[in-house]
Transporter (Ganoderma sinense ZZ0214-1), 282 residues
Amino acid sequence: MAPATVPCQYRTGKTLGSGTYAIVKEAVHIKTGEYYACKVINKKLMEGREYMVRNEIAVLKKVSKGHRNIVTLHDYFETAHNLYLCFDLCTGGELFDRICAKGNYYEEDAAALVRTIMGAVKYIHECGIVHRDLKPENLLFRTKDEDADIMIADFGLSRVMDDEKFHLLTEICGTPGYMAPEIFKKTGHGKPVDVWAMGVITYFLLCGYTPFDRDTQQQEMEAIIAGDYRFEPEEYWANVSATARDFVTECLTIDPTSRPTAAEALKHKWLASEQPHFVQSP
Ligand code: ADP
Ligand code: MG
């Protein structure tokens, strides 16, 4: 798949969002009138790694077509300064915003979302890819409908981006809240980091705040390394089943070799049965 060098097949419009590496704009394919989300990545961020990045993009293009809950990469091209990735447009917004709007999710709804996302994570892992940046900002709804499909976005590239710059950028842009302890200990960032992040996401869905939220990033990092979190304050957790808490506890296992894999997590009682086995009061 050779990258096309002519970006003028698309006309870009409003900015949809920006994240760690890139700005994402709405783009219309001029010939077909189809709308896409076009991710513009500054090539300076991948100096010396262009080859790896292009390779990874080819893999993403293939992999992203294989699962309905992964945002499909349709096209990519580059100019002297930027790399452009054209994805399916998700119009339903980020999971982050839906959690903030709702406060928290009912346990049944949370389990359904986590089951779907974990299924997509299992698929990505089977393809040999680690997401490394799973968080509610990278989970998008396909449409504005209440029951729209949830989609994993923003995966695969973090592995080939410059690690130092990545850390610098996370320092500037945001919270380390979803990062696994082994990332800070620099002992690895394989597939288990995604399961850890799913534990943090699940916690967030259930109560509306993250487990390692502290005043400073240093304290947050120390709390993550120590696995120091609680299902508190009690009033936020009163309606959450022991099974759900156990699922979170399993995903937040400090030792990555003892943490369940995505496939194992899917078999956890909380996700395994389609039937709700808990009573949820409104
Ligand atoms: P980064 O690597 O910079 O974090 P992302 O791929 O996460 O970039 O995109 C940044 C933001 O842009 C997302 O959080 C989301 O709000 C928006 N966005 C990304 N992809 C899409 C898409 N396919 N459809 C709609 N919005 C998107
Ligand atoms: Mg992102």
Summary: The pocket of adenosine-5'-diphosphate (ligand 1) is lined by residues 16-22, 24, 37, 39, 71, 87-90, 94, 137-138, 140, 153-154 (CB under 6 Å). The longest helix spans residues 107-126.
